């Protein structure tokens, strides 16, 4: 068993059969090729001198009576580029059917030293299992470690039926073994995890296949997950709903878990539900106490109400709620000279190791706002001049068409940190100059995560004079929105804390809830660069941090399917 940030024990290593779920591939031009499918296996693929013992009996007997629970069509990629292809190799041991090569579906990843590149899959078991086994085959091309901490292969987050700390099991590929091989036959690595007594068994597993901290290309194939209890194979799948009837698996719907209690520094929260709201736009945002400085740029162009939540982390073991914190923050807030209908609240952390509760803070800001329309934006984005005044007529008009209308505000970013003396684009024409003539501004995260804002259709926006509707289909689209504060508006899923999936998940629920999206033609937001936090570095470079976040994504999808009665294969919740 591997607890958080520990290396798991290696239960067995050696060579095994190929996966029984590889798609059948017919290669007309390639002679003497053996193709694996869900029915056939070949003992010749396992070197007879090195057959490991696994669970009971030998590996071949074990695989013949078990089904691989990892499905080829259920791997979910994040924004990192990966490729799937059919790769052939030539086993060192001659095959019983006289074939000379095997061709299998293979994941190809160009590894990077400073970021995790991976795909993910979640499996929920029909009933809790005692034991799981994981295996993968790997080949490498010009692979070299390039970071102090590195990883390559499979990493699994195990969810036990009884509450417990995170359990990570890895199936790590040793790059030195790859480079030492004299043939192109992939290296097999594998691992077994058995649930401890009293844990209630394994309820689900989220598997990551990828690499981090390397330079070069890794090719992963025949990724396999088996599960059993008392020697009997246990079935599982990507959706809990398919197993609910007669299942003893505990519900995973544990949504709102953050107990943040705000202290109000300025104004009082709106207390009449959706009645008595002002017919204007509030900027709804949140910020950590140590990032209050970024609000100077944000609020410089904003003259309507603000709904702001400030988070005060626990430091040096001192109890939250110190007078010095409140005094310091109050002075900062006073200096912002906010609109009289603004509301500013303070939330203290309850634990020194607490991750930034970003979605809980966003929900507080939504609830306390006094305006009918809300601009949902992060504190490090500077609104364009007169944004609220310009977008309000459009928001009113679209709300008459649909109570589930939203307005997309295109997002841009500065190439460098702007100075206070720098000229702010007063209109769209001046912004176009900054983008096309001077190269000072560009679409937000265009290179790092192109799908995040691609559906905004920037090239159309550059010449648009009227609002236009977009119908986003990507589950990675995360625009900044103006929405109406009404009973239809979903809140953010509060289990997402820190970095990763927190805003994308909200956009996913808006799509499922039937929201429509129009792009405003004459307003925008510009991201102001600032120093990155250590949590963001973890999100980029720490494999266990990334996997834990992606496991939450799958849990969120289970929540969406139950709430909106979605089919397991509904593309909006895959």
TrEMBL record:
GO annotation, biological process: protein O-linked glycosylation via mannose
Residues covered by region (Disordered): 231-254
Comp. bias (Basic and acidic residues): 241-254
Protein localization: Membrane
Transmembrane segments: none
The protein, known as: Uncharacterized protein
Keywords linked to the UniProt accession: Glycoprotein, Membrane, Signal-anchor, Transmembrane, Transmembrane helix
Keyword Disulfide bond set for record: no
A Pfam short name: Glyco_transf_49
Mode of membrane association: Single-pass type II membrane protein
Residue ranges the record marks as coiled coil: none
GO molecular function: glucuronosyltransferase activity; xylosyltransferase activity
